[in-house]
Amino acid sequence: MIAAVLHEPKKIVIEEHERPQLSPGHVLISVRAGGICGSDLAYYFKGKSGDFAMREPLVLGHEVAGEVAALGEGVSGLRVGERVAVNPSVSCGACRFCMKGMPNQCLKMRFMGSASVFPHVQGTFREFIAVSARQCVPVPDSFDFAQASMAEPLAVALHALGHAGSLLGARVLMVGCGPIGCILIAAAKRAGVHKLTAVDLAQKALDMASRLGADETLLADDQAAIDRWSENRGTFDVVIEASGSPAGLNTALRAVAAGGSVVQVGNMPAGQSLVATNLIMAKEVRYQGSFRFNSNDYAVAVDEIVARKIDLRPLMTHTFALEEANHAFAVALDRSQSMKVHLRFG
User: Fold this and answer.
1) Of 109, 62, 107, 70, nearest to 88 (Cα)?
2) pTM of whole model > 0.90?
3) Do 89 and 110 touch, CB atoms closer than 8 A?
């Protein structure tokens, strides 16, 4: 098989690898589509994502769908040729966080395409992967692979919104309208928000936010409007920070109403400018981080996509062959022309 292997920033090499060997309880997946995520972009352009730095060549990718190519010993409930979305995370089930019902915080987490452990957990931008049967969520035989791969970022969004509490009738602000921000908008609208306002630096991103359900959009340089949101102890019941910038978090803390909630989804760079965290105390704000997702979030995300309850197709702007991976990453970084970029296999 071939694999797209990142050896250093901006250098993916297409290599021939041996197909994975199957262990009992595992299945061989013929990968058919994979989405490029923000963390993939960080590894590709900087060699690290958050605190996780590459120490060896890494196959990126964790948003994936394909079809079952072979079944390992003891596998039931799946069949060869079946289309599946693949949950890229495997928790141990036994550490203190797994036992507390927080498997996304697992101390022995194996997350595909991540440098969080060494040796790294190789990702999905290769023709075949071997995964445990429990990672596979079947989709209809005719369902589009790229759409099925969108279950992973939707699971991230559903997990984040779960931290916000009930959104029914709420006034919500989305700070940052990249792919994950727009997915959060679609999921929040499905959850019954009364009014959703979106803010971003780029008009193109705001146009997409409107297509996904934002009721009102605002460019981030409209400081007068943002200042008005902070008047009378804030405006919004819930603010979701998806920009990953200190400026975005400052906007969130200023705009949230006293007693409201701020959920941080964006990965904030360390050592950046100061944030007005005193407002958390002064307005009694509930400030909640959200990291990845749990298996139930993923299963629900697959169902929402397959049933068209949440339609993310407008976000899917570009598709490239696996062999064009370097070009695909360059396009994915350019938000003036792309939102969600996919690689196709075969």
Assistant:
1) 62
2) yes
3) yes
